[in-house]
Design a protein that fits this description.
The chain is mainly alpha-helical and 292 residues long. The protein has eleven helices and no strands. It has one domain. The chain is globular, with a radius of gyration of 22 Å.
Length: 292
């Protein structure tokens, strides 16, 4: 790992410092951080990409007149099957990504900047079911909130973004992590939301940059097809190897970018925890006493 100054997580930060330190952490640890993610999450990522390809192929059949005329029920049942398969692998993928990211940071903190891959791997495998359970619970509650004009969903999603950090750094149960999120964020919802919205906007902009080649290819294809007799042929683009390759590449880059907001939520968690409990301050005092 590169030589750098250790980034202290357990302290209070304002919005600007959280965003700055998030990208400082990535800049200093990008090699070991993303390599750890690829090693632990890679197999599930490949599975997700395979399902994504089959989903796109099924999508092309929906707009294929001959396929619809010959077997409309089969076309739609196949599409629905791949939609559910995609949802399933997405839950697995992002739960594993969240686990790997948070346990990497935990190891980084415990070892003062020298994460232990084998320890991270062990902790990830030990906590798979807890994370999947928490992820399912948070998803159901957030989606349920989204049904009511989005605002309750945004409110709950902001609060529950802290649940995984509580699960990892306080080693609580799924239920305790869920409920403690509401206690920890009390009085600080707007500050938390402000940090998350800024980080997500930045990630969204970067993610769109990686989507530009796919968008350009779609426009070129659209211009070619629209001059013909059958505009629905445009949807055959979903089957083309170039389009599939561009889509896969864009998705992989966006997936890696998604790990950045996870780091921000850890900084937010420690900021709120320090404000409420002074955990980091007490640890420093204890360490001074031990050194003496």
């Amino acid at each position: 790992m590169e030589d750098y100054n250790f980034i202290e997580f357990k302290k209070e930060r304002d919005l600007g410092a959280i965003i700055t330190d998030t990208f400082a952490f990535i800049r200093q640890n990008w090699k070991s951080y993303f390599l750890t993610i690829l090693k632990l999450v890679g197999p599930v990522l490949l599975m997700t990409l395979a399902v994504l390809v089959f989903y796109l192929l099924a999508m092309s059949d929906v707009f294929n007149k001959s396929s619809l005329d010959s077997n409309p029920e089969g076309v739609f049942s196949k599409l629905i099957s791949w939609v559910f398969a995609l949802m399933f692998v997405y839950v697995m993928l992002y739960s594993l990504l969240s686990m790997t990211s948070l346990f990497f940071i935990k190891s980084y903190i415990d070892t003062k900047g020298k994460p232990d891959f084998y320890k991270i791997k062990e902790q990830v495998y030990q906590n798979v079911w807890k994370f999947l359970g928490l992820g399912f619970l948070v998803t159901v509650v957030t989606v349920f909130g989204m049904v009511f004009c989005y605002i309750p969903g945004i409110y709950l999603g902001t609060i529950l973004s802290l649940a995984t950090s509580i699960l990892v750094f306080e080693e609580r149960t799924v239920g305790d992590s869920f409920s403690h999120s509401f206690t920890l964020i009390k009085g600080e919802w707007w500050n938390t939301f402000g940090v998350l919205i800024v980080v997500w906007l930045l990630i969204g902009i970067l993610g769109q940059v990686f989507s530009i080649p796919t968008i350009i290819y779609q426009f070129i294809k659209m211009g070619t097809v629209m001059g013909g007799d059958d505009p629905t042929k445009f949807f055959e683009v979903f089957k083309e190897p170039i389009y599939l390759a561009l889509n896969i590449g864009s998705y992989v880059f966006q997936f890696m970018l998604y790990s950045i907001p996870l780091i921000s939520t850890v900084f937010i968690y420690f900021d709120l925890n320090e404000q409420k409990n002074l955990t980091g301050t007490f640890e420093k005092i204890d360490n001074l006493g031990n050194n003496n």
